[in-house]
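User: I'm curious whether this sequence folds into something compact or stays loose and floppy. Could you predict its structure so I can see for myself?
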Amino acid sequence: MGGLIDINGTSYGTTETGGPDNDGSVHSISTTGTEKVLHGFGGRSDGTFPVAGLIDVRGTLYGTTLSGGTCFVCMAYGSYGTIFSVTTNGTEKVLYDLTGFRDGANSVAGLTNLNGTLYGTTGFGGGSGCYYPYGCRIVFSFTPGGRNVRL
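Assistant: Here's the prediction. I'll summarize afterward.
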């Protein structure tokens, strides 16, 4: 569902499903058509269903997942997605688990990089003021190595 990005002639993207547990993947495709799965999302802990595209920040790919994650507080209500990074060699790392509350839930749009801060949107979250109990949707900012900040 997300678009492809080009890094030095290789395309990188996500699939919503597929991978070892059918929870989505990050892949590369060379100009000769050789595809490589860089990371297969393997269930709840590293996120599931990366529907948005990726962005490249100095050689590291960043993206979000629609659901999954290990948010302890969230387990009673479900899982609300992750912000992740993956290298072009396939090393994936969950950077943040969305909680579904002030920081939002279910990110489906791609991230934007502005001076090292990543910005994104969520489909739900942000409080219960307008669409109980799911919230109003939010725009968030995230600094890799930092913390998630609601806008």
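Summary: The chain has one domain: 5-150. DSSP finds no helices and twelve strands in the chain.
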